[in-house]
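User: structure tokens for this one?
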Amino acid sequence: MSMHATFMAMRSMTADQSVKNQKLKAGTFKRILGFAKPYKSQLSVFLVAVIADSLLVIASPLLLRRLVDEGVIPGNSGLVTSLAAIVAVLALADAAVSLVTRFLSSQIGEGIIYELRTRVFAHVQSQSIAFFTRTQTGALISRINSDVIGAQQAFTSTLSGVVSNVLTLILVIGAMLILSWQITLVSLLLLPLFVIPTKWLGRKLQEYTRQSFQLNADMSSTMTERFNVSGALLVSLYGDKSSESNLFTSRARRVADIGIKIAVLNRTFFIAFTTLAAVATAIAYGIGGHLAISKTITIGTLLAITTLLARLYGPLTALSNVRVDVMTALVSFERVFEVLDLEPMVQDPENPKVIPAGMPSITFTDVHFSYPKAEDISLASLE
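Assistant:
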């Protein structure tokens, strides 16, 4: 089991599960596709690269089978050299495809981030002063930063992950069934051993991560309030510096404690995942070894199928949580659209009147005063 596959499975399992039942507004998906239009050609090449990478996943194990069965065992040194060279070329090709995929995903992702941020910034600037009096600056900045990045992932990690995992699963399971349906069946029956523990650990890690965000926000809020002229003056005049230090120390201690819990749980997740993969591989070797002894399969087939097995459970576990990954990206887009759709309470006229020269005078006729409703000037999620 590769470290990358383990990390991707862990990232998928620790996503916020609450988004999977959230309803999207009508037209959201259509608006999202609008952001993909400028990158149509890059997305096409990106998907081709992802597909090529999935094909390379099964190529090396199948060549390994030939190398052992037709090269090593018969003593065909020429074939061994040729197949070893091909495996090396495939490894270089896989590295090149990975670089292309990374370049394209970065190009698409950063382009979408740029477009969303500039649109949100320009739109927020058009809001009335009342909007800024009610809106929390931190919540607004988070919307521009965190949610925009979450939306960007819809076209990069989420899209590539779903396509790559689905295709890899189809190819790997297909190849394994052809090589040995017995080992493949046992391998699939072991899937709950991966999904159940990772889901439980994922929920715990999600809970700790949410606490970490809140505790870090509290600590940052303390620094923001104290590290400015008004805050420092207020503490000097009316406050107690030792109590302020104790407050910050307490919050910093809680941040450190939750950080330790997250680090230990992350490592537990990794160890559990890799240990289960090792156990599954051992079972496959045990069954495959008996099949090889009885001449049902060859030694090369056994080596190929155990190599493929290492590339099976990561995509399977990640796809078990695919709905959460997709909804997380879509909800991030919707939260950005929520800001873009907010109409300014006071709008400049399209054809403003020119104020004549001289001393202006203002006359109020039928003027009334009232406090506007919160929803008319801001968003509840930003207050």
